[in-house]
């Protein structure tokens, strides 16, 4: 068992480092070529590289499809908890925007509407799949794999959440520092929910509502 866990650890480390380094070099090349195409194409490339990382884990570790957190023993309870968290998060984002506007921070300067969703209506549908895909990779691929390796350590879960969140933040390098920090913080928060539920469906609901609300409120 110890040898198997050691082999899994090395494979996860090498796979994650390889994909992250490849991603950083890709961003450097993108900047060197002076942003030759829209950043959303980089996001799709990032998701492709994440799939490659998942393929490496499935092929060369003891990680299996059954370990991916796709099943929930208490789905109704998980979704109810997620809905409460999502509503609280939405209210927080609205209140924070009101505060920013009242303080005259300039963050929302030039906006004509407090809430606007008609800029990209197709995004409401598109993000259904994007959020699910990102949760699948962040939870099933990264956090769950790290949890399996570190479960015997005192702070194994905390390390798994922190590392998977940082990797997810790095995958948003092309959007800038503050977006990276926001993505890492979001993934850390969702990682705590996943640790409690051991299913991606609750975190997926929160992720989707956060992403759509962030777009409509012009936070992102």
Mean pLDDT: 81
Rg, rounded, reads 18 Å
Distance between the termini: 45 Å
Backbone structural class:
mainly alpha
Report the sheet with the most strands, covering strand number, pairing sense and barrel closure: none
Estimate the global geometry from the Cα principal axes: globular
How large a portion of the residues is in β-strands, by DSSP E? under 5%
Q: Which assembly state applies to the chains in this document?
A: single chain
Number of helices: 7
Describe this structure as you would to a colleague:
This protein is mainly α. It has a domain at 66-216. The chain has seven helices and no strands. The model has no long low-confidence stretch (mean pLDDT 81).
Jot down its keywords.
75% helix; mainly alpha; 220 residues
At a glance:
By secondary structure, this protein is mostly helical. It is 75% helix and 0% strand.
Topology:
Elements: H1 2-32, H2 39-60, H3 75-103, H4 121-150, H5 156-170, H6 177-197, H7 200-216
């Amino acid at each position: 068992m110890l040898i198997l866990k050691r082999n899994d650890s090395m494979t996860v480390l090498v796979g994650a480092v390889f994909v992250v380094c490849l991603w950083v070099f890709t961003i450097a090349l993108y900047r060197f070529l002076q942003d030759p195409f829209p950043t959303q194409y980089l996001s799709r490339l990032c998701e492709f590289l994440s799939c490659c990382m998942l393929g490496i884990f499935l092929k060369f570790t003891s990680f299996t499809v059954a370990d991916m957190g796709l099943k929930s023993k208490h789905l109704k309870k998980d979704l109810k908890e997620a809905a409460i968290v999502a509503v609280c998060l939405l209210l927080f984002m609205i209140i924070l925007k009101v505060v920013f506007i009242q303080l005259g921070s300039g963050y929302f300067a030039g906006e004509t509407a407090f809430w606007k969703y008609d800029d990209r209506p197709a995004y409401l549908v598109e993000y259904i799949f994007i959020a699910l895909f990102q949760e699948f990779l962040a939870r099933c691929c990264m956090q769950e794999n790290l949890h399996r390796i570190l479960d015997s350590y005192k702070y194994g879960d905390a390390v798994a959440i922190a590392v998977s969140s940082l990797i997810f933040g790095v995958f948003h390098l092309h959007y800038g520092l503050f977006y990276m920090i926001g993505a890492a913080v979001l993934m850390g928060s969702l990682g705590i929910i996943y640790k409690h539920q051991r299913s991606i469906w609750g975190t997926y609901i929160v992720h989707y509502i956060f992403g759509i609300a962030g777009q409509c409120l012009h936070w992102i």
